[in-house]
Each structure stands twice: as structure tokens, then as C-alpha cells.
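Figure S4 source data
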Amino acid sequence: MRAADYLSATALSKKTSATLEALEKGETERLIILKNNAPKAILLSMESYEAMLEEIEDLRLTALALARLDSFDGKKALSHDDIRRKFDR
């Protein structure tokens, strides 16, 4: 992490508007907010936050698919043709 990625809570309270603008413009991806020189929070742009949520959801779905593959029994599976016959109208 670069020093520019850290911001004190005091500086944030004094420069809230400029800080939010820097995040919005993409000048910084995230800011770690320090209180008494200890990390207390992370400030992200909405774009970074949404990208993070998407990636987490992709990882969750991948883990679910891999778990299902482990328990997949091809003998019990229905073929594509079986499904089409069952649901085609």
C-alpha cells in the first residue's frame, strides 16, 4: 500500500467533498481511514464496490458449481432431449 492510500479520520472530516470527488473520478481506488494511526475503515468508490460484489458473487457461484460437480451422478441425470420432451409445448 502506498502512503497516498491512507487518510486520517481528521483529514477526511476536513476534506470530505474533495475525497469523495477523488474516488468518483478514479484518482484513487480506495482509501484506508486511520484513527489514532490504526486502520478503522475503507472508503471505496461505488464502481470499485460494485466490481468487488460482482467478483464475490462470481466466486460464490463457481464454488457452488464445483461442489455440485463433486456430487454429480451422470446415471441420474436427464438428457437434453428428455428435458426438451418434458418442457416443449
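Figure S5 source data
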Amino acid sequence: MKGAFLVSASRSGSTMMSTILREHPDVLSLSELMTTQGSRALLPGAISGETFWQQLATPTTLMRHLANPDSAPREFLYHTVSDGRFDPYRCPPILAVTLPHLFDHPDAAFDRLAQTVPQFPTQPRPDHYRALIETLGAQMQRRYWVERSGGTLLATAALAKAFPQAKFAVILRDARDVTLSMQNYKPARFLVWFWKRARRLGIDVFDPGTQIGSARWIALIERITAPLLPIQRILNTPPAIEDTAACCSALMTSGIRQFQNLPEARRLVVHYENVVAQPHAELARLATFLDLPKNDAWFAFGVGIPRAFPPRHLSLPTDQQDRLSALTADVRKLSAST
């Protein structure tokens, strides 16, 4: 299967693009497969199929707080499943978002995978993901896959190394609006909290060498400290706009620079504001880049999805607009030039 990652800084319109792609009859649109694996997503080393399945099927303490109907209501669909047999606040990570977006009966799909995935040979995680994607693609008779997880822009380099044949489309949005959305989005609040405290120790968790999802030490710290952290209090407390803007800027800057290092043939830049203003042109660009077969019905559906709303930062008082603009000036300049 040909494949691609739709990466973003979070709260940038990637869910909208994933919704559009999901309607293409040839596309396996995978939502939040990587993000729900958290700090274990791309750890180095070979693991058995059974261990990989346990990772897909067993939520960590942290993910139970982040991937549930209260924290991520739009992306999290399992609580809407009428015949779901799992507690939506403790359900398997792959059932939280990925499978309900693909199947009318996600529990049945989960049971099929429970019979198949543990039989995978011992191999690195990227090979397990490829085998999983091929399995889902065969079940749904899809020839192309696109994985979309919020915040994976920061993991561009790691994903590009793990999936050397995959293409990358990045969706960028005005950092002022991303900052405001992150401030109100509970999983992003935890990211800001963790990033700020790691930075105090001189650690950049957005750096490709010490990155969330690829670094064993982060996974170890999560396993040890998560049961002791006041996670719910962190999620319920909006971070200061200065901290959120700084985190957003650091994430976008690191991710964009990683993205710029990809070969030109592997990357496409999509700006959210352009998608809303010119959906025909932008969707055509994306379809061409992904080598998707022409489908008029899908294209007609896709161009009708984007909706124009006033930028969120314009609702702020003038002095707060000016402050937010100043805090995000550098990363907005970098984003505009990408």
C-alpha cells in the first residue's frame, strides 16, 4: 500500500482533512493511531506481535485521562458506539479513535485484530505498524493509507525514518489560533505542562533526539510518575497564554524544520486558511500529491466540508491580540515561508 502522514501541530484542521480523505473509496484514513500510542509509539528495538498487541490494546494511566469523551470529545468516538462492551474511559487505545472511524462495529474489528496481530513476528514497531495497516487495508479493500494524529508534526523526522517510503503533507494554521485552541484543549494542556517542566531541566522534548514517542526515558518516566501526577487538575487548568504560545511556537518550529529536511518529492505544505478559502484548488493539490485515483463524487464531497469562520484571535481585545501576535511572530514568519 502507498502511504502518507498528515502531520500538524495540533488544533490545525487535520481532523477536517482526515474526514475528507476517509470518504475516498481507495483511502484507509487512520485517525490518531500514533498519538494514542503515546510515549510508546516509536520506541526502538524489536518486540513480539503479542507485545505490540498489548500496546494497542492496553491504555496507560496517562492515556486513560487524555483519550476519553471528556478530554477529546470530537476525536474520541468509542463512547458513541451503541453496542460497545468496553468502558470508554478505559478502552483499548486502538478502540478510542482509530477503529470507530473505520468500522460500524469496532468491537468486532478489534476482536479480529486480537486474533491476527499477536501472530506478527518479532520485529521493530514500524514493521508492526506496516503489517497492521496492511491488515486493515485488506479488510476494507483500500489501496492507500493516510495516518492523521494531532501533534505529529513534532515527530516528522522519526516517522520519516521509520517509514522511508511514506509521503508527508503538513497542514499549518495561524499560530495565534493554534495557541488559543491548545489552551482550551485538555490533551494539549498536558503537553504544555510537560514541555515547560522538561525545559526547566534543560531538556527539549520536541528535539528529534529526545522526543516524545521515540525516547525510552520519557516512556519510563511516564510509567513511574503518571499514577502520582495530578493529571485531572492539569487538564482542568488552562495554562498561561505565554506558556501556551511558547510551547506552540517551539513545537511548530521544530516540526517545520524537520519537515523542511525531507526530500522535496516527499513533502507538501497545506495552509488551513487556503483550504477554507480555496477548497477546490487545495484538495486537488493534495489528491495529486497523494497519487489518489480521480473520483468526482469524493471531490464534490470534500470541497463542501471546509467552513469559513472568523479567526479566533480576532475575538480578543486589541491589547491581547497584539500580545499574542508578538508571542507568535517568529513562528508565523517561518510558517508563511514554508
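DSSP finds 18 helices and seven strands in the chain. The two ends are 29 Å apart (CA to CA).
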